[in-house]
Amino acid sequence: RFDSPGWRVAARFVPYLFYSRLPGMRMGEKRRIAAIWLPHWPIERFYRDIKRTNASFAAAEKPRALVRAGAGGMRLVACDGRALAAGAEPGQLVPDAMALCPKLELHASDNEADRKALDRLAVWCGRYTPWVAADPVGAGEEPDGLLLDITGCAHLFGGETKLLSLLCGRLEGFGLTARCAIASTPGAAWA
Q1: Model-level pTM?
Q2: Which end of the chain has the smaller Cβ count within 10 Å, N or C?
Q3: Which residue in 102, 54, 105 sits closest to 79, CA to CA?
């Protein structure tokens, strides 16, 4: 994931982030990177936006999925829990998903809104460290996570474990499914 050309291009725009010594960093101090993966980011962002604009929206009524044009036709980009339980999966062609789950409600995927919301979330994460970036290469085609350089910041929150549990707890409080890890490199934290 971090050996891809997209990662190298994105890394050029954040020169201090993750690769070089930060100003004020002691010699021999190990860099610590927190990786936050949001596995259901597009559908959870969709639900958050709908709830914000329509207070009477009921999230759990029907199975829902986001779609966009892909190879061979319209494909599912993200599915909620009910759609997944019915057999629909991201990457599946819409007719195949509809055969498994006839009541599946489809909505257009909005990559731009996903990116903007992820950027806002990255800015919000600035309360934990000043060095935050959207993970430029998501598990699919779009970014779906954040990388935080927490070198020298963890002690402000009682250590790495407390910082990570606080961060993940806040994200879950926002209604987001988050997988978080800390390591000395972005690749190791992401793995």
Answers
A1: 0.78
A2: C
A3: 105
